[in-house]
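RETRY 2/3 - previous attempt timed out on the joint model. Re-submitting the same 1271-residue input unchanged.
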Amino acid sequence: MTPRVAVLFGFGINCDHETKAVFELVGATADRLHVNLLISGDERLEDYDILAVPGGFSFGDHLGSGRLLGNRMRFAMREALRNFVDAGKPIIGICNGFQVLVKTGLLPGPEAGTSPDFLQRGSLTLNDSGRYEDRWVTLEFDPESPCIWTKGMTRMECPVRHGEGKYVMPTAEDLDRLNANNQLTVRYVDPSTPLGSGMTDEALPYPISPNGSMRNIAGICDASGLVFGLMPHPEAIYARWLHPMHTRHDSDDSSGALDGWEGEGLQLFRNAVEYVKQRS
Amino acid sequence: MRDVRGDVVRRQLKADHGVTVANVRSICGYLISGETSSDAIAERVDDLFADPIIEIGAANTAMLTTNTFHESPDTVITVGFKPGVTDNPGKAATDGFLTLFPSDGEAKIATYITYVFYGLPVDCDATWLAGTLHNNLIERALVADRTACGSQAWPELMFPTPPEQKFIEPQSVNLECDDATLEEISTSGLLALNLNEMHAIQAHYRNEEVRQHRTAMGIPPNAPTDVELECLAQTWSEHCKHKIFASRIHHVDHETGEDTVVDSLFKTHIMKPTHDMQKDVDWLLSVFHDNSGVIAWDDKWSVCMKAETHNSPSALDPYGGAMTGIVGVNRDILGTGLGARPIANTDVFCFGPPNWEGQLPDNLFHPSRVLRGVHAGVRVGGNESGIPTVNGAIVFDDRYIGKPLVYCGTVGIMPRHLPDGRPSHVKTPVAGDIVYMVGGRVGYDGIHGATFSSLELTEESPSSAVQIGDPITQKKMLDMVLEARDAGLITCITDNGAGGLSSSIGEMAEYTNGCEIDLAKVPLKQAGLSPWEILVSESQERMTIAVKPEDQAAFERLADLHEVEATAVATFTSTGMFHVRYDEATVAYLPIEFLHEGVPQLQLESEWRPPELPPFVPPAEANHSELLESMLQRPNIASKETWVRQYDHEVIAQTAIKPFVGVHRDGPGDAGVIAPIHGDPHGLVISCGIAPRYSDIDAGAMAAASIDEAVRNAVCVGLDVDKMAGLDNFCWPDPIESVKTPDGRFKLAQLVRANRELERVCRAYRLPCVSGKDSMKNDYGTGPEKISIPPTLLFSLFGDHPDVRKSATSDFKFPGDKIYLVGESKQELGASELAFMMTEDGRATGVGGHVPLLPNPEQNLSTYRALSQSIRAGLVRTAHDCSEGGLAVALAEMCIGGRMGALVDIDGTGTGDVWGRLWGESLGRIVVAVPPEHERAFLSAMTGHPTTVLGTVTATTDLVINDGDDALVKADVEAMASVWKGTLDLTGGVI
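RETRY 2/3 succeeded.
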């Protein structure tokens, strides 16, 4: 089967084209779907296997990033979203999409084995710098995370492009609880550390941590590992010619996608597509 | 939780004014006008207005009285918008409110922000402080000083209700009067029409045939209505009709004795060369007549580009002016052909020095504030629209204090053919098509923008000319329009920019030769606008789109889905008339031909005498290492990273060469390269060139240098020089001789020379100009106080890159790579950055002398072709344009990008002395680095082109430059990076 991906757009989402493209590069079919088509019932979320909420500036980030789109989804798509999650279908939110999933309460979500309750448990707030910035960061993935999106991924460089990417929760215990379940899936790390040993709870300095996130968190998943959100943009490194240093290296290996020019970010989308294929 | 909004204010007070404040807190306030009870709202505060995790919310309470603020502050300042000013957070809040309270359909929300200051220095005046936090043209501020804070008298803003607009029935304006009265009518009405033009209008209404037609229509036969006069003023404005570029110029050159007449600079020097080149290539699809120029990029896609300026609005309100600049030019792309998708922005700014300590004329902002505001405007406008900013520049000169230049450009892409087979670059309206206004509503904001920008800035400049853009409303419209295009629903589309509906429908009506508009149908932001105001208002975020009658239902369904307002307001006809009604009453009835062709040609005088400037004479001895350190801190040379990094430069996942390159991503990118089709490395190069200070010596040389710089920048990344197109954006001081402008003849001669050089160089480079714009009144004040900007041409370029994987960047990459100079250094230090620096600090006495020239552009093009082919062949992976600050600065930047050293000898690099070869800004030069294994092939490819070995990239931390046996420069790379990056970092850090 060919997994079908619903890529949301409308109201200021703006990474919908590339998000659709990366899913298609790894063998899915993807539709850009206006949020209102799902709310009106003209399109049904249940007809899709994967839901992607791309980056952008929904409603201009006013009243807090992701909040107004999150509200529309929380109030108008509640049942459809709950059923989607209960059916064990993967969801990803990237950048503004991550903010939306956090504000709807889908991330980090309730304890394992429970349906979504749409309670907000964490937040994404203004970067400590006070500035929106586009800069490349180094990420490391928790190999023990239940996240189905990040299986086998270790370290990756990609850009962050946000003004409100600082992940916070009310108490240290909240973070401990997520950590115990390996839900702090991906973090900003110092690129000079040895591979696999970059993750730390100690606050890393700007700009290694671009926003001052608690425990350097870049992305988290829900207890099931199916719902995943992150501030950095893996789709922005779908091809190596998008890496800032690509002019230093010709490809000497033409295997893989894009004649050997596949970028590190593409695997994340392939993981979800393969997961859906194997489940069906 | 940290209060970052407060922190930003605290840091900027320190960075801009040296004021240290212990702590600043912020409160976001919402004023709600509606039917919902305050108790009901209070229950939902955490669902909408406050984030329960990070914020504290309350309803019907001044937050300052809650126990969140236990300590008494020193000062409290509340800032909100003035009535009628676009409040984007308020609009979003209203939308969110309706999600929670759908029955309260008429609810409206206005926002404000309160800053609470603790530990404020005692001598810090609260009113002054409020002045740094708001622009009183568009915002209001309430202040509680120490005394007020002590008695807990907190500032309280009321809901901003716009003043009632009085609907005025169309009046007829009697033009049967003497010349002085005619001029008075123009001046007092802000019409910006000169006496000749008033006479032409007067003559129209004396025409017997015209009078008969008007009588038949039931409209006053002998005189224009106010609607007609306003419509003519907009359509005939300098802004819309480019009257100076179309004028007949008597040009006298006292240097050569030439005495000649130029009949339209535009037709002679810009249009004709492009049309000649169009005969030789098959890829110039649409030039000059549409909202942007279109070229075929491959079999499936075409690309287009447009650049605009938004100088006058940005002078009054830097934030709003710049934002409407960028979202406005996005609409030019959306309005090209049947609709193109904007995929890349460029931003080029010219400001006064950010560290200016001299006098400021009345009503002008300090350059650092202009920089902050303009930057924030294009940042928000570009980022929220999801369009990456891939290229740009910031230029500084004292004279831009009088008028900042804000150039905004956008690149678009569209399929060569739509699914229904129509070529997408051709508009296809027919009489009977229904004309929709789509997007935002019409308001009092934005009345008289076009005519205002055709006048010089004065203290009385109107605030209604200032608007704030609404990128999300525009984004929704953009999404909707592109779907409508692909569904084949659009027959014609254009932007509502300058001149509003009068221009947009008026211009489109030329296709079918007529239209009939009903202004009563136009949705308004507030009731009471008079017909002429509705017709000419430039309210933002609107497109005018024509649809076949049978497609109306589908079109309106699509608008509903996207929550975009679309209203049928007109019909195309073939009557030859621009016919405007308000309900049943005809309020304007103008022949299309008179509207568009009736403006009389200006007759202007131009006189060239070369300016006499004391020449730049460098001192006999100098420490070039110290000079390099100083040069790297010059605002014109220093890194713009902290500013540019705040633009999203890689949304759409296509940007293959970004504004920053190298190991720490902080070396300068020469040009932007994008690969817009996902999965395909076929690329497009976007670059620019600007060299305004060369105008001090010769505006012709300035123009040539701008074009050469744009081409050179693009060559550095691997442009195919055989497929490139350009945009010319002229910003000039008023070049019409008058009492206000006694040196108008000279300024016009500068324009003539710039145009002649533009033609000469573009023909030699086979570089067609496909679109352009001019802004001709960039002056402030009159008399001895008058400030005129240096004549400035921004030349933007877009061109083909067959494979982005074969690109080059400016950073040095591998120790051992050989460094070469392509091109020759001459003794050209006139108007150079070094000359300005040494003259400003007293080490020299003038900036005159030999300005860089381009004597043999055909040879340059041939060299560029050879070099870019070498880049695309993979022989060269490092290339950097050599311009401001000459070879020394270029090498320093390449070392910084790669964080490695270089050992260089400039002996033999040209005819100049050591100053000329190290610091001169001769055109046509590019520094490259070549891996040893490719050196032979590179040299073979460059046979016949000036190519001189400079030295080697080294695994050291020093840039070392010698001239034969003479040691000139030894500079530590990290130290250079530190000073180069520090100058313009006005962020105040992150602490």
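The mean pLDDT of chain A is 95. Closing ticket.
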